[in-house]
What we know:
The structure holds 2 protein chains of 2 kinds.
Chain A: E1 2-6, H1 7-17, E2 22-25, H2 32-43, E3 50-53, H3 57-69, E4 74-78, H4 80-85, H5 87-95, E5 101-106, H6 120-123, E6 131-134, H7 138-155, E7 159-164, E8 172-176, H8 180-186, E9 203-204, H9 210-242, E10 249-252, E11 259-263, H10 267-276, E12 284-289, E13 291-293, H11 297-304, E14 309-314, H12 324-332, E15 341-346, H13 356-368, E16 377-378
Parallel strand pairs in A: 2-3, 2-4, 4-5, 5-7, 6-7, 11-12, 11-14, 14-15, 15-16
Antiparallel strand pairs in A: 1-8, 6-13, 10-12
Helix pairs in contact in A: 1-2, 1-7, 3-5, 7-9, 10-13
Chain B: H1 22-34, E1 38-42, H2 46-50, E2 63-65, H3 71-84, E3 91-97, H4 98-103, H5 106-114, E4 120-125, H6 162-167, E5 173-178, H7 182-194, E6 199-204, H8 208-211, H9 218-227, E7 234-237, E8 241-244, H10 254-258, H11 268-288, E9 289-290
Parallel strand pairs in B: 1-2, 1-3, 3-4, 4-6, 5-6, 8-9
Antiparallel strand pairs in B: 5-7, 7-8
Helix pairs in contact in B: 1-7, 3-5
Amino acid sequence: MKRLLTGNESAATAVKFSRAQVIAAYPITPQTSIAEKLAEYVARGELKGRYMKVESETAAMAACIGASMAGARAFTATSSQGLALMHELLHWASGARLPIVLVNVNRSMAAPWSLGVDQNDSLSQRDTGWMQLYCETGQEVLDSILIAFRLAEETHLPVMVAMDGFLLSHYFEPVDIPSQEEVDRFLPRRKARFRLDPKHPSTFGGGVSSGVLYDLRRKIQADMEAASEHFEKLCTGFSRAFGRSYRPVETFQTEGSDLTLITSGTLTGTVKAFLKGNRQGPKVGLVKIRMFRPFPGEEIRRALKGLKRVAILDRNLSPGAGGIFSQEIKASLLGLEGAPSVVSVVGGLGGVDITPEHIERLVKELLSRKGSPVETLWMEA
Amino acid sequence: MECPRLHEELVSPGHFACPGCGETIAFRHVLHALGKDTVVVTSAGCGSVVDGYYPTTASKLPFFHCSFGTAATTAAGVKAGLEMQGNRRTTVLAWAGDGGTFDIGLQSLSGAAERNEDILYVCYDNEAYMNTGVQRSSATPKGTWTTTTPKGALEDRPKKNLIAILAAHEIPYLSTATVAYPKDLEGKIRRAKKMKGFRFIHILSPCPPGWVYPPEKTVRIARLAVLSRIFPLFEIENGNEYSLSPMEEKMPVTEYIRAQGRFRNFTEEDIAALQKNVDRAWEDLVARSRPARGKG
Lengths: 381, 296
C-alpha cells in the first residue's frame, strides 16, 4: 500500500513495524516529529513499547544502552547537537556491542545556529563503531530501518540511519508501506545472546587488560568488515520479501562517462534529476554511496575502475582537510590500476540549495578544465 | 545491636577495595538485603573498579558498568527493557558514588527522579573523588583537605544538600544510612525494595585513605557521623513525610572532626562554627519529623 509520508513519518512507521520495545528520545529540530509520532503510537497502543521522555540526548542513548543490555530492542532519533551530545555513549554502545538503531536527521553543527542540512553531525561520529547508512528517499528511510535492526542484531553492532534534514525529513513522497506480517517475517523479535539476566548473572563493561581491549578492537574491525557482506545478504532477502533492492554502493550509467559524480543522501536525487534532462549533453554517470561505515572500499574501487574522471560531492566539511567522503574515497583508490582522476567538491553546507541547474553548471565547469585540480572546489551558493 | 547475618554472600572476597573500605561494606549489605533477583548498574568510580578486572568479578549478580554521568538513566533503561520483555519483578539498582551522583550524574538523577522511574538508586558517599585520588566533589564538606583543596585553599563551600534537592522531586522514598548501622541500612533497603517508583538511599561510606584515618576505624567514624548528627539517619516519603531513624544520644562534633586527617586544619573556632550549623540543621530536621519508628 502506498501512502504519502514525510521522511520522518517513514522512520516512525518503520520503528513501529519493527516492534521497538524501548524508545528514548529528546526533542531537536528537525528530528522531533519522529519522536512525537512514536510517542503517539505508544499512547494509542499501536506500538507495544515504552516511550521514555528523557532529559537529554545523553540520557536517550544511556536509556537505549540499558534497555538493549537488558535484551530489548531499543531505538532513538536525533540531529546535530543532540548526536554530538551522545558522542561518549555512541562509543559505549558499540564497545558493549549493543544492537541499537538510531536515526540521525542531518543538520549542521553550531555555532552559529542553523537548521539547514549538512552531514557534519553524523560524519563526526564516523569513528565511534556505528554502522552508517545514508538515505536518498523516504522509501529508503523506511526500508533501511527494517534492515538496520536485523543488521545490528545479527552483527552485535549499532546502526545509524542518516537522512537529510528537511529535504528528506519533511518532504512528502509516496512510500510503499509493508504489512506487519511481512515485517515480522523479515524481522523476528530480538533474541539477545548476552544480556542482564538474574537467572544467568554476568558482568558487562568492567575493566579489562590492554591485551583484552586490543583483541576486542580487532574483533570489532573484523566484524565490521564482515558486516558489509552481511548487509548485502540481508538486502537480497529484503528484495525477495519486499521487491526493493539495495547495495552499499549503487551506479547509474557510469560506463563510458566523461565524468561521474559521487553523491550521498538527497543530493543523489538532484543529480538524477539533472541526468534526466541531460540526454543531449556530455556523458555523465552517477555513483551513490549508501553505506559509509563499514566503508565499502572494495565496491567503490569496482565502481570507479576504468572511469576517466570523477567528482565527489560532499555536503560536509572537515575544515583543513575538505570533504569527508572525498578523503575516504580517494584513500580507497590508492594503488588501483585504472583509477580515475578525482576532484573534490564541497557544497550545500547549512542547507544551501543545490539544484539540477547547479549540477549542470558544475559539470560544464569541470569538463572545461584540463585535468583535476588538487584543491577542494566550492559549489556556488 | 544485633547484626544481620549474611547467610548468602553476593559479594565475593578478592575484590580490589582498600582495607577498611566503606563502599564495599555498604555494597555487601545492600546486595544482601536485595537478594538475587537484582540487576546492578554502576557508573565510573570506586564501585566500578573494586568489582574486579576481567575475567574476575566480585559481584554475583548481573552487573553493568555504565558511563560516569548516567547511572540513573541507564538503570531506568534496564528496567524498561526488562519490563518490555515481561519481567516486572527484578529490582534494578543504580550504584554510584558522590561524584557520579552529586556532580556529573545530577542531571541524569534528577531526570529519573522527576519521571519517577521504577529503580532503586543508592549513592555511596565518600565525600570526594576517591577513585582518582581524593579530589573535592560537591559532596566535600567545608574545611576539608583534598588534593584539589590543599592547605591554603581548603574547601570553602558547604556540602551540597542533595537530600533537599531530591525531596523537592517528591519521590516515593528517600533515606540516609551508613555502614555503622547495618541493620538500619538493610531495613531501609528492604523497605525500598517493596516500593514502586524512584527510591533513593544515601549511604555515608567512610574512606580510610581519603579521609586520612586508620582502616580499622571505618565503623567508628561512620558511627560518630551519626552520633554528632553531622549525618543523621532519617527517611522521607513522598517528599515531605519525614521520620527519624533510631539513633543514640547526640554528641558534639569534636571527636568526629579530630579523628580524621582530612580535617586537620580545623581550628577550635571552625569546630564551634560547624557545631552551630549542625545544631541548627538537626533542630530543623527534628521539627519536620515524626518520632523514630522502633528502637535503636
